[in-house]
Amino acid sequence: MKKIILVILMLSVKFSYSQDFSIYIADNRGNQNISYDYLLTNDSLIITGISDYAKTKVDYLRRKYTKEEVKSLKTFFKKFKLDSIKDNYFSDYSNFEYISADHFPRVIEIRFRIGERKAYTKLTNSYVVYLTDFFNEMDMLLPKEVTFQLKPADFAKSF
Question: Cα angle at 116 between 115 and 119, to 5 degrees?
Protein backbone atom coordinates (compact mmCIF):
# COMPACT_ATOMS: atom_id res chain seq x y z
CA MET A 1 0.00 0.00 0.00
CA LYS A 2 2.82 2.42 0.85
CA LYS A 3 4.44 1.72 -2.51
CA ILE A 4 1.22 2.55 -4.34
CA ILE A 5 0.86 5.83 -2.47
CA LEU A 6 4.50 6.67 -3.21
CA VAL A 7 4.02 5.97 -6.93
CA ILE A 8 0.87 8.10 -7.02
CA LEU A 9 2.68 10.94 -5.26
CA MET A 10 5.61 10.76 -7.68
CA LEU A 11 3.32 10.78 -10.69
CA SER A 12 1.33 13.73 -9.37
CA VAL A 13 4.55 15.70 -8.74
CA LYS A 14 5.77 14.89 -12.27
CA PHE A 15 2.39 15.91 -13.73
CA SER A 16 2.34 19.23 -11.89
CA TYR A 17 5.97 19.94 -12.85
CA SER A 18 5.20 19.33 -16.51
CA GLN A 19 2.76 22.24 -16.29
CA ASP A 20 5.47 24.67 -15.13
CA PHE A 21 6.59 27.33 -17.57
CA SER A 22 8.67 30.45 -17.86
CA ILE A 23 8.83 32.68 -20.88
CA TYR A 24 11.14 35.63 -21.31
CA ILE A 25 10.39 38.11 -24.10
CA ALA A 26 12.54 41.12 -25.04
CA ASP A 27 10.96 43.55 -27.50
CA ASN A 28 12.66 46.72 -28.76
CA ARG A 29 9.31 48.10 -30.01
CA GLY A 30 11.02 49.40 -33.16
CA ASN A 31 13.36 51.70 -31.25
CA GLN A 32 17.10 51.17 -30.86
CA ASN A 33 17.28 52.49 -27.29
CA ILE A 34 14.11 51.04 -25.78
CA SER A 35 13.38 47.57 -24.51
CA TYR A 36 10.29 46.02 -22.97
CA ASP A 37 11.12 42.83 -21.08
CA TYR A 38 8.34 40.42 -20.17
CA LEU A 39 8.75 37.47 -17.79
CA LEU A 40 5.84 35.10 -17.56
CA THR A 41 5.95 32.29 -15.02
CA ASN A 42 3.43 29.76 -13.70
CA ASP A 43 1.77 32.27 -11.44
CA SER A 44 2.92 35.78 -12.30
CA LEU A 45 3.80 38.37 -14.89
CA ILE A 46 6.66 40.87 -14.63
CA ILE A 47 7.22 43.69 -17.11
CA THR A 48 10.33 45.84 -16.97
CA GLY A 49 11.90 48.10 -19.52
CA ILE A 50 14.53 50.54 -20.55
CA SER A 51 13.39 54.00 -21.55
CA ASP A 52 14.72 57.55 -21.86
CA TYR A 53 17.09 56.46 -24.61
CA ALA A 54 18.62 53.67 -22.50
CA LYS A 55 19.09 55.86 -19.41
CA THR A 56 16.32 54.58 -17.12
CA LYS A 57 15.34 51.07 -16.02
CA VAL A 58 11.63 50.92 -15.25
CA ASP A 59 9.66 48.32 -13.27
CA TYR A 60 6.34 48.59 -15.05
CA LEU A 61 4.21 45.77 -13.67
CA ARG A 62 4.41 42.84 -11.25
CA ARG A 63 1.26 40.85 -10.64
CA LYS A 64 -0.10 37.38 -9.97
CA TYR A 65 -2.45 35.77 -12.46
CA THR A 66 -6.10 35.18 -11.70
CA LYS A 67 -7.30 31.56 -11.55
CA GLU A 68 -8.93 32.00 -14.96
CA GLU A 69 -5.67 33.29 -16.48
CA VAL A 70 -3.70 30.34 -15.05
CA LYS A 71 -6.23 27.91 -16.49
CA SER A 72 -6.17 29.63 -19.89
CA LEU A 73 -2.35 29.64 -20.04
CA LYS A 74 -2.03 25.99 -19.04
CA THR A 75 -4.61 25.00 -21.64
CA PHE A 76 -2.84 27.05 -24.31
CA PHE A 77 0.63 25.66 -23.53
CA LYS A 78 -0.59 22.06 -23.58
CA LYS A 79 -1.38 22.58 -27.29
CA PHE A 80 1.50 24.90 -28.19
CA LYS A 81 4.23 23.14 -30.23
CA LEU A 82 7.68 24.48 -29.41
CA ASP A 83 9.35 22.19 -31.93
CA SER A 84 7.65 24.09 -34.77
CA ILE A 85 9.50 27.30 -33.92
CA LYS A 86 12.64 28.20 -35.84
CA ASP A 87 15.66 29.76 -34.10
CA ASN A 88 15.64 32.85 -36.27
CA TYR A 89 13.18 34.72 -38.48
CA PHE A 90 14.96 37.47 -40.38
CA SER A 91 13.87 39.87 -43.07
CA ASP A 92 15.84 42.63 -44.71
CA TYR A 93 15.04 46.24 -44.05
CA SER A 94 13.58 47.06 -47.47
CA ASN A 95 10.36 48.37 -45.90
CA PHE A 96 12.31 51.18 -44.19
CA GLU A 97 12.96 54.42 -46.07
CA TYR A 98 15.58 55.21 -43.43
CA ILE A 99 16.83 53.74 -40.14
CA SER A 100 17.47 55.86 -37.07
CA ALA A 101 17.44 55.30 -33.31
CA ASP A 102 13.68 55.91 -33.08
CA HIS A 103 12.80 54.37 -36.46
CA PHE A 104 14.48 51.01 -36.08
CA PRO A 105 13.64 47.46 -37.21
CA ARG A 106 11.62 45.62 -34.59
CA VAL A 107 13.41 42.77 -32.86
CA ILE A 108 11.68 40.34 -30.52
CA GLU A 109 13.59 37.60 -28.71
CA ILE A 110 11.72 34.83 -26.90
CA ARG A 111 13.03 32.11 -24.56
CA PHE A 112 10.51 29.40 -23.77
CA ARG A 113 10.59 26.76 -21.04
CA ILE A 114 7.38 24.79 -20.85
CA GLY A 115 7.78 21.78 -18.60
CA GLU A 116 10.84 19.95 -19.90
CA ARG A 117 10.66 21.58 -23.33
CA LYS A 118 12.83 24.58 -24.21
CA ALA A 119 13.11 26.81 -27.26
CA TYR A 120 14.57 30.12 -28.36
CA THR A 121 13.59 32.30 -31.28
CA LYS A 122 14.44 35.75 -32.58
CA LEU A 123 12.16 37.73 -34.89
CA THR A 124 13.90 40.53 -36.79
CA ASN A 125 11.60 42.72 -38.87
CA SER A 126 9.42 39.65 -39.38
CA TYR A 127 5.83 38.63 -38.78
CA VAL A 128 5.52 34.95 -37.82
CA VAL A 129 2.05 33.56 -38.46
CA TYR A 130 2.66 30.52 -36.24
CA LEU A 131 3.27 32.80 -33.23
CA THR A 132 0.08 34.86 -33.75
CA ASP A 133 -1.93 32.77 -31.27
CA PHE A 134 0.92 32.99 -28.76
CA PHE A 135 1.05 36.80 -28.95
CA ASN A 136 -2.75 37.03 -28.80
CA GLU A 137 -2.74 34.88 -25.65
CA MET A 138 -0.05 37.09 -24.11
CA ASP A 139 -1.88 40.30 -25.08
CA MET A 140 -4.91 39.18 -23.05
CA LEU A 141 -2.73 39.36 -19.90
CA LEU A 142 -1.20 42.75 -20.63
CA PRO A 143 -2.38 46.33 -20.15
CA LYS A 144 -3.23 47.88 -23.52
CA GLU A 145 -0.19 50.18 -23.59
CA VAL A 146 2.26 47.26 -23.47
CA THR A 147 0.54 44.74 -25.73
CA PHE A 148 2.53 43.47 -28.70
CA GLN A 149 0.24 44.92 -31.40
CA LEU A 150 1.77 42.92 -34.24
CA LYS A 151 0.35 43.51 -37.71
CA PRO A 152 1.69 41.82 -40.87
CA ALA A 153 1.72 45.16 -42.73
CA ASP A 154 4.29 46.54 -40.29
CA PHE A 155 6.92 44.02 -41.32
CA ALA A 156 8.90 43.36 -44.49
CA LYS A 157 8.19 39.63 -44.50
CA SER A 158 5.78 37.09 -43.06
CA PHE A 159 6.77 33.53 -42.28
Answer: 95
